[in-house]
User: Which sequence fits this backbone?
């Protein structure tokens, strides 16, 4: 490798390190309930100049979008369900709800920041919609063996009900507004899903 190549590699590595520092700082602010971090705050807390932060991110919307994506990447393994769709229904319900609750505990601050900023930042709104769509798709995969025997209307109704029960919005309501512990909220969702699948018809 030429000397110029080493210099370029060093610059790329340094740039990525700085980007990661800024994004980690934004995620820290989310965890502190600072849901509208500014470029100035990100620069000050990261130890970088404001000019550098603007070099990496064109505007606050791009910064928030990148932080949300980083949080999603960090939580990817937490929210994964292994052998998805396999096993008895009760075990699949327990695995699904446990996985969703673990993910909520890890990326809940990011969810709240996403929700708070979605109305004013289209890219953040798109990220929120993408996350919700992925959650719905995961629900359909986990319970496909029950869904495949239903007619279109019943399938849509069951998926819609399960989707409502297992989105972060419902977990947020149970934990933050009703004051339930994670275990209690998980029990509520498991019970609701079990009742839902016990009577899938109209």
Assistant:
């Amino acid at each position: 490798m030429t000397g110029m190549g080493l210099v370029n590699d060093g610059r790329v590595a340094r740039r990525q390190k700085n980007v990661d520092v800024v994004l980690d700082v934004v995620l820290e602010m989310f965890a502190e309930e600072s849901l509208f971090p500014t470029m100035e705050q990100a620069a000050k807390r990261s130890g970088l100049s404001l000019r550098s932060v603007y070099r990496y991110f064109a505007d606050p919307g791009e910064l928030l979008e990148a932080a949300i994506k980083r949080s999603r990447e960090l939580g990817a393994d937490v929210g994964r369900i292994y052998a998805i769709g396999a096993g008895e229904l009760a075990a699949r319900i327990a695995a699904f709800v446990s996985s969703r609750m673990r993910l909520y505990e890890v990326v809940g601050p990011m969810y709240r920041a996403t929700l708070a900023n979605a109305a004013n930042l289209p890219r953040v709104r798109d990220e929120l919609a993408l996350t919700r769509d992925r959650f719905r798709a995961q629900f359909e995969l986990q319970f496909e063996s029950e869904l495949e025997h239903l007619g279109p209307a019943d399938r849509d109704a069951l998926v819609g009900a399960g989707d409502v029960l297992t989105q972060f919005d419902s977990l947020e309501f149970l934990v933050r507004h009703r004051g339930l512990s994670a275990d209690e909220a998980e029990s509520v969702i498991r019970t609701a899903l079990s009742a839902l699948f016990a009577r899938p018809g109209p």
About this structure: The CA atoms of residues 22 and 178 lie 34 Å apart. The radius of gyration is 20 Å. The mean pLDDT is 89. DSSP finds ten helices and no strands in the chain.
